[in-house]
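Field reference: sequence -> structure
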Amino acid sequence: MSRIGRMPVAVPKGVEVEIKGAHLRVKGPKGELKQIFSASMQISLENDQIIVQRPTDERIDRAMHGMTRALVNNMVVGVSTGFEKILEVNGVGYRAELQGTDLMLYVGYSHPIKVEPPGGISFDVDIKTRQIKVAGFDKQLVGQIAANIRKVRPPEPYKGKGIRYIDEVVRRKAGKAGKV
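Structure field:
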């Protein structure tokens, strides 16, 4: 049986959960998320805990069981505490700054790259450490926006210049040797 799927999801104070069949709506202090899950998964609310149960032991149901529980947990954690990803800008002359709510990236192109935050996402830039913080209540959207920012100028292996995640390790390569 799925070890992840069996664990109940604790619902903290201030979070409202509404279950209508396969539809789940979670509302909290950070925002509101809605999701439609597989109709075969049975989602129920008991004693401030969300429990996900599967109908059979077939392979597809076992796979959906753990995934459904993980998505429900991400929804509850997102609307109560939120998620964040931190990126770091490396390179001579490379920088990031906020212009209103938009993120402006100066990363070696002839023009600055403007990144507009979608609803529920906020940017924070620390100029001294050259870090960009992407925060929001939808884990999937936070990860996608951070990946889009990284894609503007991915880190290169020779000098390490570019935009990378704070915990990402860039494998460095030796340049070609000069003539003797």
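Note: The helical segments are 3-6, 59-80, 139-152.
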